[in-house]
Design brief:
mainly alpha; 0% strand
Length: 175
């Protein structure tokens, strides 16, 4: 069973993941309006990933006998100055989420909540990937600058991204 404190912290993270999905949907809408369908696709897939992250917290809370508490989600920005501006925000946002996950791990360790700490390791690994992906795209955008050909090539690359649901616990473990 989860402590009241851990339950509150996990609910806060669940809601933070929902905000992340909302932010990336807003960015997808921005890129659609800019006729950058590949960038819009990347953001839409990112929103789907964030929703799946939220559901991992939702399911974990329920599995551990906790109570899920959904709160209001703040409205995200709707405009960015450029693709660089948007991906700079993506990168900074993912760094913030990493800090939130790290704080949860620290709290689980303080409470000797080994089950929660174990569950959170998936998110620790995931955040390394999230930050690296955002940073790579941001670096590429900075390299191409305002070059239309470079932006078009990146747009086409990002259009190829598809949502792949995370594997269920235990899948691929050979047993």
């Amino acid at each position: 069973m989860l402590s009241e404190s851990m339950q509150e912290k996990l609910n806060a993270q669940l809601n933070a993941e929902l905000y992340s999905a909302y932010l990336y949907l807003s960015m997808s809408a921005y890129f659609e309006a800019c006729s950058m369908g590949g960038f819009a696709n990347w953001m839409r897939v990112q929103a789907q990933e964030e929703l799946s992250h939220a559901m991992k917290f939702f399911d974990y809370l329920a599995e551990r006998g906790g109570r899920v508490t959904l709160t209001a989600i703040d409205a995200p920005r709707t405009e960015w100055a450029s693709a660089v501006d948007a991906f700079d925000e993506v990168y900074r946002h993912e760094q913030k989420v990493t800090a939130l996950i790290n704080n949860l791990v620290n709290a689980a360790e303080q409470e000797s909540d080994h089950a929660t700490r174990s569950m959170l390791q998936w998110f620790v690994t995931e955040q390394v990937e999230e930050e690296a992906s955002a940073e790579r795209i941001l670096d590429n955008l900075k390299m191409v600058g305002d070059d239309g050909t470079g932006l078009l090539m990146l747009d086409r690359e990002l259009a190829q991204r598809v949502y792949t649901p995370p594997a269920a616990e235990g899948e691929g473990a050979g047993g």
